[in-house]
Amino acid sequence: MPGQVPVEEWDTLHTMIYADEMSRSGLAVLPGSITTGVAFGIPPLLHYAEPQLQERFLLDLLVERKRICIAITEPDASSDVANITTTATLNYASMAVRTGGENSGGKGISLILVPLKDHPGVTRRRLKIAGQIVAGTSFIELDDVRVRPENLIGRENEGMKYIMYNFNHERMFISVGVTSDFVKTLMEQPVVRHRLAKCGAILEAQWSWVESFAYQLSKMPKETADQELGSLTALCKANAGIVLDECARCAVLLFGGNGSTRTGKGEIAEKIYREVPWARIPGGSEDVLLDLAIR
Asked: Per UniProt, what is one Pfam family of this protein (predicted)?
């Protein structure tokens, strides 16, 4: 493990530090290329799958002999996981599919491990996205794909619960990353100091919130954290995107014309600003998370 930390001692506070260090470049390229699939695809398998399924896949995934992703977004459903239409009938992506009847909503979702490479009926193609292109976001098409029944992760029709619990970790990871982008003074005029002070205030408040969640996640039993922290982590992640948007716009404005160029002194500010939507959408889009938190 990083920092020579024994694996049995690794907790959420270590994850927070790791995510912070990975984000110090100011770009999402490094964490996006290294951790995205592993960080979000393995936890459902680790926490909810039957032992036989874990024995078949976990070791190869953890040492990266195999790769995994999580597939929960459809073209027509977007961030609304409860309304996905991909259907599985009883007869290596952790994939959300509908196993309940029509209009079953979130109560009819199950998670299934689906092999991707050279598997009959599975086709993949790269998606061109606005930011974090190294994350490997892809379109997966399933045409009458056959999967072993024992590839079901957890219990049938309880996948929505597993997905929501999995988001707690993902949202904290995103929240950490967006607070590490602006750490240097851009100009020395009073108006700049005023703008940077405002950004510093909201960044410090957001970081304090993230640290609080990291502490709670490291001390609470997982079952308790899953149930008690869901709405609060949703609110924290939504606010992290708002904070990043404010700070990114501030940096672009302070750089003036240089803030709109992809090379030169303002290139980092321009790249961060271009990637703002990819902090506000993954892990649950901002409006969805705010509604979840208030409910």
From this structure: Acyl-CoA_dh_1
pLDDT digits (tens, 9 = 90+) for 83-127: 777 888 776 666 666 666 666 666 788 889 998 888 999 998 887
- How many whole angstroms separate alpha carbon 39 and alpha carbon 170? 8
Q: What is the pLDDT of residues 186-215, one digit of tens each?
A: 456 777 788 888 999 999 999 999 999 889
* Domain 35-157 is found in CATH 3.40.630.10: no
**Closest Cα to residue 52, out of 168, 195, 152, 191?**
152
Q: For the domain bounded by 160-294, which CATH number is listed?
A: 1.20.140.10
Intervals of CATH 2.40.110.10 along the chain: 35-157
Tokens representing 155 are 């219990």
Beta-ladder partners of 95: 71, 112
Q: What is the DSSP string of 218-242?
A: HHS-HHHHHHHSHHHHHHHHHHHHH
